[in-house]
Design a protein that fits this description.
By secondary structure, this protein is mostly beta strands. The protein has three helices and 23 strands. Helix content is 8%, strand content 37%. The strands form seven sheets. A five-stranded mixed β-sheet has the order 3-2-5-6-9, with no helix packed on it. A five-stranded mixed β-sheet has the order 10-17-18-13-14. Strands 1, 4, 7 and 8 form a four-stranded mixed β-sheet that branches.
């Protein structure tokens, strides 16, 4: 079957995006589950099969406990999972777990004696206790990104919600980017760190403007799944950073089709006129776009596409300035249509008063 050249290019770009996404996932953004499996007496259970299945993509990871009853499952992309433990002579253990980006959690499982056909279900909720690492971090999830107001639909502003993080670009010590930089770059400072002390990752790939040492722009609000800001005690795998790590996870397709379209409009039709320009609509901004995701092959291959466009115009004011003529620079003010008083004279109690 022959395809039109444009169709072939689109297919190639799609496959490249899928492969690139697959290569990126599995790096710093992935999560891990560790734990120990025991029986009711507290004795360890070796050889138990531990399975983690993503409820949206059916991604399946399987491992077995070692002689000490210890198991570890990684890498696991962020998402909702069903964690099961199976061993002959014990009931099947099932726990619902939600993992956020770069999360490392310890879940110890205790099996009950019985038949594998019986299942014990435990709902652990979305919040897991991290007793695997000593890192201090904050996760901004999809719900927060959707519900909090964002100026220009820029999720990077939510970095500043993390404890101890401030906007360095509002201070006098920052090196401000010039006209050659990207828009919406973020200069966050964690724990008093200087510009360039943070390290940003997008799906496990460096996302930095290394010329100004700033975080490069985020994907828009409909393409950002969540991100984590690690402010201290992060692992050596991040390397570059001396102060904080910002790890961003983009959305992906699932076994169900999902999508939407949007347009956000800002203008001055209902605003008071600008004092300087007299215009009632000094700012006109349209942000519009759409997104769609779903399965190409259920449980195996997925796609997600997103587009956002911005059209903006701002009314400009007029400022009139007068520059001295050559005669004035030589001390000749005879062309001025009023009589100037002496430099330090006062008229009616006012200094530098001019007289008509």
């Amino acid at each position: 079957m022959r395809f039109h050249p444009v169709v072939r290019v689109c297919i190639s770009l799609l496959l490249f995006g899928v492969l690139f996404r697959s290569a990126a996932v599995g790096q710093a953004e992935n999560s891990r589950i560790d734990g120990v499996v025991t029986d009711p007496s507290g004795a360890v259970v070796s050889g138990a099969q531990i399975t983690a299945v993503n409820t949206e993509t059916q991604l399946r990871q399987v491992t077995k406990t070692d002689a000490s009853g210890v198991y570890s499952i990684s890498p696991l992309p962020p998402g909702a999972y069903k964690l099961t433990a199976e061993q002959a002579g014990f009931e099947t253990y099932l726990e619902n777990v939600t993992l956020t980006i770069s999360e490392k959690v310890t879940i110890n499982l205790q099996l009950k004696i019985g038949q594998p056909t019986s299942t014990v279900t435990v709902n652990a909720g979305e919040i897991q206790i991290n007793n695997t690492t000593a890192e201090v971090s904050n996760v901004v999830d999809e719900h927060t990104i959707k519900e909090l107001p964002l100026n220009g639909r820029d999720p990077s502003s939510l970095i500043l919600l993390s404890p101890g993080v401030m906007n360095l670009m509002n201070t006098s010590i920052a090196m401000y980017p010039g006209s050659d930089n990207f828009l919406n770059e973020q200069g966050a400072s964690a724990g008093g760190g200087q510009q360039g002390s943070d390290y940003a990752l997008l799906d496990g790939i460096q996302n930095m403007d290394l010329y100004y040492n700033l975080t490069a722009p985020f994907p828009n609000a409909d393409a950002t799944q969540e991100f984590r800001v690690i402010t201290s005690n992060f692992g050596a795998e991040y390397g570059f950073s001396s102060n904080a790590v910002i790890s961003i996870n983009t959305k992906s397709g699932t076994n169900a089709f999902h999508g939407g379209a949007f347009e956000f409009l800002r203008n001055g039709d209902l605003n008071a006129a600008n004092w300087f320009t007299g215009a009632g609509n000094p700012l006109k901004r349209n942000q519009f776009g759409a997104f769609v995701g779903g399965p190409i092959s259920k449980g195996k291959l997925f796609f997600f596409a997103n587009y956002q466009g911005t059209r903006q115009s701002i009314a400009q004011g007029t400022i009139t300035e007068f520059t001295p003529t050559a005669a004035m620079l030589n001390g000749d003010f005879s062309a001025v249509p009023i009589t100037l008083g002496p430099p330090f004279a006062t008229v009616n109690g006012k200094p530098n008063q001019v007289s008509p």
